[in-house]
Design goal:
Layout (H helix, E strand, L loop, with lengths): L3 E5 L3 H4 L5 E5 L8 H17 L3 E7 L9 H8 L3 E6 L5 H7 L1 E4 L1 E3 L1 E6 L2 E4 L4 H12 L7 E8 L4 H11 L3 E4 L2 H9 L5 E2 L5 H10 L2 E9 L13 H14 L6 E5 L11 H8 L8 E5 H6 L10 E8 L2 H9 L4 E3 L4 H9 L7 H6 L7 H19 L7 E3 L20 H107 L2 H5 L1 H12 L10 H11 L4 H12 L4
Parallel strand pairs: 2-3, 2-7, 3-4, 7-9, 8-9, 9-10, 10-11, 12-13, 12-15, 13-14, 15-16
Antiparallel strand pairs: 1-4, 1-5, 6-17
Helix pairs in contact: 2-8
């Protein structure tokens, strides 16, 4: 996919400057999720604390909020430049109103990190890897690190292909299952734990959490959790919680998302969906992402208190565990079962968890995390001065520009209103089509009748064609015989013509010989003898057999001067002797 990058106008000069840069991409694309923000912050801190690189972070253009401030967000993350990625180019007036400018080049990217966490799956993996590869594919032999990842089994092949193509220096994952999946595919991989660990440990100091009566609750019934179809089960879990505590025990509701999109159903939205199924009246609300925006200014009047926690978030669960609070991680799909396994939650149900809430021991994982950070610091310390240029395409003249909307817009009611208007419009079209279809039905009946008639004619023609085909095959067979016979006659004719020519030649020779014979003296002298011999044999004087004795005397008489009376008398007399 072709991607377009935008930056605050005042940061474009930094991107095209000579300063060495680090490019970070990962789970946080700006949607305001507690865990994603912490992972992003953890990756930024490691680069900040161990290098002099200018840090570039990337978020989605779709996460720009109407009530947000890009520059304040950039400052809160502590990055030198916040890039926004879009799958289509912005219109000029839109980018001007947002204070953004398209980035066509970035100079001297010395380091690229794909930080955590749980997006390498069929839901989000293609998009995140696509953004990373849009940059990595334009770098020559980049210093590349992958950290804090959790990989779904059905997405391993894609991840392995990415690793084989871009050859990262380090590959770190946050759970043992992902380690086993990559090692079985021949990838050299290390356990890095989660990139949010260090920020969570700092948050533990900033926001005190104590074990005591009450419950810490985080809900998420968005579609990707699988909880959207399990509200009855969540209601049953809430009833089990309330029965465990005395009336008046505090309940703290943790809001992990700051996302105006109505399809994101975090704690507040889920409480609304539950209706009477949420029977707590005195609830304390903690907006976690707001805490992260201004950590120094958020001194809570009282600590968070709970005997245990109930969460639909991997990072809320990990935070509670690091604070010594047992926490159940709810999720209705394999993605969340993998997360439970990664966090050491061995119970198969919330009921089983309530019987004996326990905090998994992450001591060994934290030690391995420390070793991983040392390896990562070694990579950063060994970076060399890069002289590179990443070029991004300008939009084509005939391209389709992005129809930019602020995050969360249009609202669900606006989308429903638009869909309703579309329905009414389609209903009108349908009515027109119905009327046309009535007239068409009559025409169809006529055409069907005509079609039947044509079908009968076609059948008759098919029969006739079949008969003609048989006749044609017979004629073709006869034609073939005639061709053979014609060839034989032609050859016979050639032979006869040859023989005729030979006969003509022979005839000419014989005629020549006869002429010589007829002209000879001996032929003339023997002529009377030949006549007498012929008459003796045939009773005829000529060779044609037409002149007998009577005809010979008649012809002689015609030449003699005999009176008619005498001629008549002689004729009558001779007639008596005629055969």
């Amino acid at each position: 996919m072709e991607l377009y990058f935008y930056a605050p106008r005042e940061k474009v000069e930094l991107l095209s400057g000579s300063r060495q840069k680090a490019f970070l991409a990962g789970g946080d694309f700006g949607y305001g999720n507690f865990g994603d923000v912490l992972q992003h912050a953890g990756a930024i801190s490691v680069v900040r604390d161990n290098s002099s690189l200018a840090v570039i972070a990337v978020q989605s253009i779709a996460t720009i909020s109407k009530f947000g401030d890009i520059r304040k967000t950039q400052k809160s993350y502590g990055v030198d430049c916040l890039l926004f990625v879009s799958e289509a180019p912005l219109k000029d007036d839109c980018s001007i109103s947002l204070g953004l400018e398209q980035v066509t080049s970035i100079i001297n990217v010395a380091y690229f990190q794909l930080y955590g966490g749980g997006f390498l799956n069929e839901l989000w993996g293609d998009y995140v890897l696509g953004v990373a590869e849009a940059v990595l594919g334009r770098l020559e032999n980049p210093t590349y690190v992958i950290s804090g990842q959790q990989i779904s089994e059905d997405y391993v092949e894609t991840v392995v292909a990415h690793i084989q193509r871009f050859k990262p220096r380090l590959v770190g994952v946050r759970d043992q299952r992902s380690v086993d999946l990559l090692r079985s595919a021949g990838v050299e991989v290390a356990f890095s734990f989660d990139d949010a660990v260090e920020p969570l440990l700092e948050l533990r100091e900033l926001l005190p959490v104590q074990v005591g009566p009450g419950v810490l609750l985080h809900l998420n019934t968005s579609g990707y959790t699988g909880n959207d179809a399990a509200l009855k089960n969540i209601k049953a879990d809430l009833s089990a919680m309330s029965s465990r505590f005395a009336e008046g025990a505090p309940l703290t509701l943790l809001q992990a998302y700051r996302d105006p999109r109505e399809e994101v159903l975090d704690s507040l939205e889920s409480v609304k969906r539950l209706g009477a199924g949420f029977n707590y009246s005195d609830v304390r609300l903690i907006q976690l992402v707001n805490l992260l925006d201004h950590p120094g200014a958020c001194e809570l009047s009282t600590p968070l208190i709970g005997e245990f926690a109930y969460s639909c978030s991997y990072h809320v669960t990990l935070w509670m565990q690091l604070c010594g609070i047992p926490c159940w991680l709810r999720g209705e799909n394999s993605f969340y079962r993998e997360k439970r396994e990664a966090l050491g939650i061995v119970c198969n149900s919330f009921t089983e968890f309530l019987m004996s809430p326990k905090v998994p021991d992450h001591t060994e994982k934290l030690k391995v995390r420390s070793d991983w950070l040392e390896s990562l610091k070694g990579v950063l310390a060994g970076l060399t001065q890069e002289r590179s240029l990443i070029g991004f395409p300008l939009p084509a003249r005939d391209c389709v520009h992005l129809n930019f909307r602020y995050q969360g817009e249009p609202s669900l009611s606006e989308r429903l209103d638009f869909a309703w208007r579309q329905k009414l419009y389609l209903d009108e079209l349908l009515e027109v089509e119905r009327k046309e279809s009535y007239f068409s039905a009559v025409k169809v009946l006529e055409l069907e009748s005509e079609n039947d008639s044509l079908r009968d004619r076609v059948y008759g023609m098919v029969k006739r064609i079949t008969a003609l085909g048989h006749e044609f095959h017979g004629i073709q067979s006869d034609n073939n015989w005639l061709r053979v016979e014609l060839e034989r006659v032609r050859q016979e004719n050639v032979r006869l013509q040859y023989e005729s020519a030979q006969y003509l030649i022979s005839q000419e020779i014989v005629e020549s010989q006869l002429r010589l014979l007829y002209q000879s003296t001996s032929w003339q002298l023997t002529r009377p003898m030949r006549v007498l011999v012929r008459y003796y044999r045939t009773a005829r004087f000529d060779a044609a057999g037409e002149i007998g004795l009577f005809e010979a005397l008649r012809r002689i008489a015609q030449k003699l001067r005999v009176p008619p009376k005498v001629r008549s008398l002689v004729g009558q007399t001779l007639k008596n002797y005629r055969r």
